[in-house]
Amino acid sequence: MTPTRPLLELSGITKRFGDLVANDAVSLSVASGEVVAMLGENGAGKSTLMKIVYGLVRPDGGTITMDGRPLDISSPRDAMAAGIGMVTQEFSLVETMTVTENVALSSVGLGRVDVRAARQRVVDAMDRVGVQIEPERLISTLSIGERQRVEIVKALFHECRVLILDEPTAVLTPQDVRALFETVQRLRRTGLGVLFVSHKLREVAEISDRVVVLRRGSLVGERATAEVTTHELASLMMGGTAPEEDVASAVGLPVAEVPEEAPVAPREGAGTAERRPVLILTDVTLERPGRPALDHLTFEVRPGEIVGLAGISGNGQTELMNVLGGVELPTSGRVEVDGAAVTRLDVRGRLDAGLGRLTEDRRGSVVPQLSVEHNLVLEDLPSFTRRGMLDKAAIRAHAEEVIRRFDIRATPTDPVSSLSGGNMQKVLLARALSRRPKVLVAAQPTRGLDVGAYRYVHEQLHELRDTGAGVLVISEDLDELRSLCDRILVLFRGAITGGLPVAEATSERLGAMMTGESVEV
Amino acid sequence: MRLVRRGHEPAWLPVAAVAVAVLVTVALSAIPIRLAGANPRAAFERYLLVPLSSTLGLYEVMLTATPLLFTGIAVAIAFRAGYWNIGAEGQFLMGAVGTTAVALNAPDLPSWAALPLGFVAGGLGGLAWAWLPAWLKRRGAIDEVVTTLLLNPVALLVVQGLLNGPWRNSETGFTDSDRFGAGYDLPPLISGSRVHWGFGVAVVIVVITWFVFTKTAVGMQIRASGQAPDAAKFSGIPVARLRFRSALVSGAVAGAGGASQVMGVQHQLTQGISNNYGYTGIIVATLAALSPVGVVLVAVLLADIAVGAENVSLVLQVPTQLGAIFAALLLLTVLSAMELRHYRLARSGRRRHGATPVSAEEAS
Ligand SMILES: Nc1ncnc2c1ncn2[C@@H]1O[C@H](COP(=O)(O)OP(=O)(O)OP(=O)(O)O)[C@@H](O)[C@H]1O
Ligand SMILES: [Mg+2]
């Protein structure tokens, strides 16, 4: 598997946004059959660099060559024609079209579309990638995880020699990550070069031949994966010395193996059990054509506990989030927040009842054109208003405090649309947490966060729990659930198939429940 | 050559885009001016500079800008909230009808009572006309673009019906209403000029709107509702209710414009009371990028061109309509420039098809 001559070469790529240098003379190469992983903190400039290669962002300087020949890439079409495919961090699917249409979209010219042939090609591409999704389904009916898979199929649909994956595993289940990695291995043997962005050192160690590290726009290190320690990588990313715990969480060690974060058993004791649950769902059903999306869903979250909701995406997570958030009314059933029935309340009413939410859909939760500071207060305007007028000073102070506390790489007045993926996630998290909710429902709370932020979020969620709030974490990432939660429930086809205290929640048992085997609670 | 989307946009880009648009407009409209037999340079001078270079001209521009300020800000209020009110024309007309109803039924009121009453009646007229589409939108999700637009000719029919029937002029028998009582005459804002207090009212409304948009919580909620309704809903902002209310306010402001026009200029209801002010208001709001300050600038610019067009047609013997052509071209070019500024030109990708000169590594 010795990489041959470089296939794709970047040299001296520089990109500035105003005063900010997002990429500072970055040079790197990818050889045929090689997997190069890129690491870096949130806002380090990884996505910007990838977007430059894919023609989504125009660099201020530097050259890109393929097979030694200079490329003039000014649009994704150029990139595709040059044999470069990419899965972006934020999705770019047309919601009202089917899977087939979306995948085939970029290759449709002005001529007639041969639907049957296109469908067959899409099915073939899905087989190659190892993804199973009904080609006729509308994107809008797919979960975020499923959408991500469609994106991967789309990138590989074309004759592709270098594949760029910008945090592709952030929303995949461990099984899907396996499948993706197998695909990547298979494709690399056929000579595909892969550029892979991730925050998870363990994935990087597993899949890559070489690791490059970006820090504040500059390439600060390049190592052969086999010869580098995770600790060294973490220090490179963060500059200086990284705390031991950060390194541990970066590697993705389950918490059970990191002593001081292991769940404390007494929390399950009498104290919490007697207190009134802060979130109760009773027989919540949401009808959908075919089978119900939520099927007599019943569970509760008590104050002072973090409950994980595991499950393969598409089993009702999105719908549950909608029903809890007040975006959609359940067909039947009852939802209670902190003792008050909120089933029929709108979003405002639920927020006031003490519900906090963090959805997996970033785009649907922020107003991109509004500034960071305004997005931060959007849910809680009354507290930042005096006699109807915006309290500018208070808003600014709040934003500065949050930006400092969460280490968000932005100024209060930046429009949220200019933020890096991880920083946008931090804004949303900060907004949800700063209202001190009685119960927080969080979907994929650490999606796309770097090592330091990942740990910080876990600390914040633990702190929220310790102040007596309940937390429901919806995630496909079993390692994360095990390191974060006190109790794990499994969602399958819109119903709970079982629950386990975290100490008993092994991957095998959870995995079995996630595919429908019922286990006694 | 083809268009390629820009990654980053420098701050000067929108300004440059507008400048380019103005130049293109000037170049394009030179053609019809030439065809009409006039010297384009002299014409442009008269369109843009002459009206603003004398006090009298300035007054005329202010007078012409007045109804555009009302309708422009009215449209901006609705558009900001994401409610596409195309019906300022009808709302303006119904505002005029509201004022006329009061003026004809209580002709002898003193001005301290008549003027506020006239404005309130006008505002209510516009609001009432805006209510139905807004309600249909909120209850039945019926597209407001269609309903507000279709109500415009209906409003004109109402005006014509009234003028042909109950409100026909009792002295002349013509199809315009009786002259209002003296109490309903808006006094001049600047003595000795035709600029009336309607201009002052419009400016006050613009300032209030600016204040609400930029300083208040409601303003921010309206912005969020317009720019990202899903995210706004997610944050607990009552998007539908805000849009409904913005629609009503928008209608009321347009209606106040009608009141200002009947009380300040015509002093009676006529069929031509709205010289397409409602539609021009859409142009004003759009060119202004929905900003209140921009509404003032654009309204004055369009008024300048309109006044200039009168002058041009008198002096250079070309049709007044050239002014309308000029304004329409300006709208098209500015809108195109604002969209095109997201792109830049690139030479077509010769290398894409491997047509580059064969080089050494081809052989290697
Ligand atoms: N269009 C833009 N305008 C202004 N600043 C931008 C723009 N796009 C990105 N940035 C800034 O450039 C920096 C790098 O962003 P980038 O998205 O490349 O980060 P990243 O390394 O991918 O981070 P993450 O891990 O959070 O995805 C960030 O500080 C971001 O705010
Ligand atoms: Mg990124």
TrEMBL record, chain A:
Molecular-function GO term, any one: ATP binding
Domain ABC transporter: 8-241, 279-518
Pfam families the record matches: ABC_tran (PF00005)
Keywords, alphabetical: ATP-binding, Nucleotide-binding
PANTHER family for this protein: CARBOHYDRATE TRANSPORT ATP-BINDING PROTEIN MG119-RELATED (PTHR43790), GUANOSINE IMPORT ATP-BINDING PROTEIN NUPO (PTHR43790:SF4)
Protein name in UniProt: ABC transporter ATP-binding protein
UniProtKB/TrEMBL annotation, chain B:
Main localization (coarse): membrane
The organism's place on the tree of life at top rank: Bacteria
InterPro entries assigned: ABC_transp_permease
Membrane topology: Multi-pass membrane protein
Subcellular location: Cell membrane
A Pfam family: BPD_transp_2
UniProt keyword terms in alphabetical order: Cell membrane, Membrane, Transmembrane, Transmembrane helix
Residue spans crossing the bilayer: 12-36, 56-79, 86-106, 112-132, 144-163, 195-213, 277-302, 322-343
Keyword Transmembrane in record: yes
Name this protein carries in UniProt: ABC transporter permease
Species of origin: Nocardioides jiangsuensis
